[in-house]
Specification:
The structure is a homodimer of 214-residue chains.
Chain A (H helix, E strand, L loop, with lengths): L7 H19 L4 E2 L1 H8 L3 H9 L11 E2 H11 L6 E6 L3 H7 L2 H5 L2 E8 L8 E2 L2 E5 L3 H7 L4 E4 L3 H13 L4 E4 L12 E4 L2 H20 L1
Parallel strand pairs in A: 3-4, 3-7, 4-6, 7-8, 8-9
Antiparallel strand pairs in A: 1-2, 5-6
Chain lengths: 214, 214
């Protein structure tokens, strides 16, 4: 792959491009210019061209981009052209919500298992997958290679699990625990810190209030 | 407030500072230098000083920062020194997970109501709050001023609700729907696009694989 030096900011914008291109494709649009995409997405056309230039530009500007081609290429860059297996650790409301989310499956993320400390949850099904006890997790991973672990457990539990997960083949952690995880090189972590996001909203509301009052 | 020109990137880092400072405070640490904070948080000390300089610097560098003071000041900046009421629209697993999340309450986010289209959910309690039918939402807002609406519903529903929410006093939207929302000036939106985050993880796993294979 030639995408080594690309910033996480650019990567972070690719799913949004994919979302808009998917909508265009569903509506039968075949070509789109960076100006049209710019108007739809409310980013500058030059930002779009710069982002795309990281990946070779995706085709001639004069004619606009081929929607289907662009959609396919961005999907490939994001690794969506092959399947990714995942398990969920923590079968509370959040874990179950993620297990039930059909969109992930459509993108090639295959839900393989869900685990919890609470023995009372054992056997309850989440989209056809039975909740297992956390004690079974290590054995499960040894028999079923899994790529991604989704952590929807409290932070103390999350920190304690990382080494075992990694030594049993997990290569990506989607971390909802409110803690930064230490992982060896080559293991990827993507954090979703919900409280942080809510605080950012609180800041923006408070700040707007403040400036209105003046 | 004098925080007008501060970038969202800086704001986005404040909750993480708060998390580390909260841990230090709980462990009885009274002062911390930018070097110590840098080692803990794995960002450069100069980044920390630059971030803090946006808010006047928070005290003398030679002696380090007063942990309690820094914690309190950052809390204030984030608007956590007063309460924020919120309702949740969409009582599926994700909506219920957010309603049950006690940490939000500890930060001053007060859970006022939860609404769903599905009449079968009516009356079920989420942390002591009964699920109401979506038809009651407008009347509820007219009688109970609420600051934040959390949208955990599909995108078509989310887009259709925005105008009603805003004209009934909602000033911040915490949006989990997979769509960009159009809001009038003065209304804040904070998006949590879970699929986008999962795709970013997928990219980083695939890219690492690719570079390993070479």
């Amino acid at each position: 792959m030639q995408n080594k030096g690309i910033s996480q900011a650019v990567i972070g914008r690719l799913p949004r491009y994919l979302r808009y291109l998917g909508d265009l494709r569903e509506n039968g649009v075949e070509r789109v210019s960076s100006q049209e995409l710019s108007a739809l997405m409310r980013v500058t056309a030059s930002q779009i061209r710069q982002d795309f230039n990281n990946f070779g530009g995706f085709g001639q500007q004069g004619y606009g981009y081929n929607v289907d081609y662009l959609y396919t290429e961005i999907s490939k860059i994001l690794g969506l052209d092959h399947e990714h297996s995942f398990i969920i650790i923590g079968a509370g409301n959040l874990g179950r919500a993620l297990g039930n989310y059909l969109n992930f499956e459509r993108r090639g993320f295959i839900f393989k298992g869900i685990f919890d400390m609470n023995p009372e949850l054992e056997g309850i099904e989440v989209r056809g997958v039975k909740i297992r006890r956390i004690e079974e997790l290590e054995g499960f991973l040894k028999e079923n290679p899994v790529e991604i672990a989704v952590l929807t457990i409290p932070k103390t539990g999350a920190v304690g699990l990382v080494d075992m997960l990694v030594s049993n083949g997990i290569r990506g952690i989607w971390n909802f625990a409110h803690v930064d995880l230490d992982v060896p090189k080559g293991v990827q972590v993507e954090n979703v810190h919900l409280s942080d996001s809510l605080m950012k909203l609180s800041y923006n509301i408070s700040r707007y209030n403040g400036s209105k009052k003046k």
